[in-house]
């Protein structure tokens, strides 16, 4: 199965600053990559699919990029509600696999 | 709006059985693949199983194959997960999620989850 590696495990950023989260696949997944946001006690929420397409209702400050094996989620100006855990997931091949997450916390 | 509501979680002993349910609303249920995804306490996400809209095609993670059975009742807009031969490592919050079936699939809507705890 494809292994998804996220870095860093924890990222501390101040509100208003930019955050850049990385996700690497053990083999090419094309653009078949999603990003999810999860807050404590809540279900994950879809942010990005197709590596760069924002899901319905997702603010423009969230952007995704990359293809093949290397992907990035960028949050351009962090708001208080953005501090959460972020997961990437590939859906290029079975089984779909998730990274272990990046915990984005307040600096 | 799309709504997914899980139920059926609880405390079980190893070797026991549990049946999870998910009630769906706000979309044409039979048009979508559906999935169960789990999250062990303090851990990441693991895709457990999914099922086609008609119910004729199913997929399972190796970790649950032969022990879990996914099914659906489109007349009742409901998804199920029968969990048998439970192990401590099956302890997790189980999420029901709607699948966008591109490649192996991703989920655009998730329920709030139901906790299954397996402990002696």
Structural write-up:
The complex is a heterodimer of chains A (107) and B (120). In chain A, the strands form 2 sheets. In chain A, strands 2, 4, 5, 6, 9, 10 and 11 form a 7-stranded mixed beta sheet that branches. Chain A has a 4-stranded antiparallel beta sheet with strand order 1-3-8-7, with no helix packed on it. Chain A contains no helices and 11 strands. Chain A is mainly beta and 107 residues long. Chain A is globular, with a radius of gyration of 13 Å. Chain B has 120 residues and is an all-beta fold. Chain B is 0% helix and 53% strand. Chain B has no helices and 11 strands. In chain B, β7 and β8 form a beta hairpin. Chain B is globular. Chain B starts with a strand and ends with a strand. The mean pLDDT of chain B is 95. At the A-B interface, β5 and β10 of A face β5 and β10 of B.
Rounded average pLDDT of chain A: 96
- The amount of helix of chain A comes to under 10%
- Give the strand content of chain B: over 45%
* Outline of chain B: globular
Mean pLDDT of chain B: 95
Shape of chain A: globular
- For the termini of chain B, the CA-CA separation is 40 Å
In short:
The complex is a heterodimer of chains A (107) and B (120). Chain A is mostly beta strands and 107 residues long.
What is the topology?
The complex is a heterodimer of chains A (107) and B (120).
Chain A: E1 4-7, E2 10-13, E3 19-25, E4 33-38, E5 45-49, E6 53-54, E7 62-67, E8 70-75, E9 85-90, E10 97-98, E11 102-106
Parallel strand pairs in A: 2-11
Antiparallel strand pairs in A: 1-3, 3-8, 4-5, 4-9, 5-6, 7-8, 9-10, 9-11
Chain B: E1 3-7, E2 10-12, E3 18-25, E4 33-39, E5 45-51, E6 58-60, E7 68-73, E8 78-83, E9 92-100, E10 106-110, E11 114-118
Parallel strand pairs in B: 2-11
Antiparallel strand pairs in B: 1-3, 3-8, 4-5, 4-9, 5-6, 7-8, 9-10, 9-11
